[in-house]
Design goal:
Helix content: 25-40%
Pathway: Cofactor biosynthesis; pyridoxal 5'-phosphate biosynthesis
Largest sheet: 7 strands, mixed
CATH topology: Rossmann fold
Structural class: alpha/beta
CATH class: Alpha Beta
Pfam family, one: SNO
Number of strands: 12
Function: Catalyzes the hydrolysis of glutamine to glutamate and ammonia as part of the biosynthesis of pyridoxal 5'-phosphate. The resulting ammonia molecule is channeled to the active site of PdxS.
Strand order of the largest sheet: 2-1-3-4-12-11-10
Radius of gyration: 15 Å
Family: Belongs to the glutaminase PdxT/SNO family.
Protein name: Pyridoxal 5'-phosphate synthase subunit PdxT
Order of helices and strands: EHEEHHEHEEEEEEEEH
Bound molecules: glutamine
Length: 196
Amino acid sequence: MNIGVLALQGAVAEHIRSIELAGGTGVAVKRTEQLADIGGLIIPGGESTTIGKLMRKYGFIEAVREFAAEGKPVFGTCAGLIVLAERLEGGEEPHLALMNMTVARNAFGRQRESFETDLDVKGIDTPLRAVFIRAPLIREVGSDVDVLSVYKDEIVTARQGHLLACSYHPELTDDYRLHEYFLNMAKEAAEGKTGR
Ligand SMILES: NC(=O)CC[C@H](N)C(=O)O
């Protein structure tokens, strides 16, 4: 199963490594035509404003919306989660506006700009190692969104059908189980299941 990693800006090589550890094939996606060859797309961490700008410039906003409308899974991590959100706190313009949630950028404040922790994630049997770097938080989700994990009462992992999002960087540790989870979503979607 080919999993694409949007390669406009951000942590691309690390995601490809985690996908390969999980048993998939990682592909750096730089052109919209490549979306035809992948079964799922990861939007990596980095700077959401930059990623959003480059997505607009290279036609990825429409192309990824079409990709998702076909039922193909999309996974946003950190800045990628911001890119997926329908609503951004503070009135900022959303980017893909695909996932029914409100997201606050840089929500941990200066003292806690980056930290690591072990998180209980629904669907993963033991705690997942997670690295937070200037991370966003999910403030609120629609009723069609499943909360998969919380950190200090705040939502940090969520799923809406074939869309997956997390506030942290799952690609910066050797714990590839969230990538494995996403790979399974892509396999199920390819087999024509609903993915729920
Ligand atoms: N590590 C990250 O992806 C940080 C996200 C970044 N703070 C943003 O707002 O886009």
